[in-house]
Design brief:
By secondary structure, the chain is mainly alpha-helical. The chain has helices at residues 2-17, 31-38, 46-60, 73-81. It is flat, with a radius of gyration of 17 Å.
Length: 89
Amino acid sequence: TKGDALETITHLIEDHTSGLLDAPADPREDAVIELLESRGVDFADWDGFHRLESAEQALGEPQGRERVKIPTRDGMLEHSRRRVDAHVG
């Protein structure tokens, strides 16, 4: 939920400010992506996030809602990989 996300980010910022977080072993911007790929972790990149957001909005439109959330990780990953103009559902 948004409340959980807010609580999580609040604690992360507090931990960072207090010096409780270790410096990354590899500070390059692409290091996290390389790590996830090396471990075979499926993830959505920024473009994929926008594809997922568009899919959720398209699902909500017929119901007069801003969006309908896609609840499963597999579903989110599937929609994040689709082309924006592909069939949603």
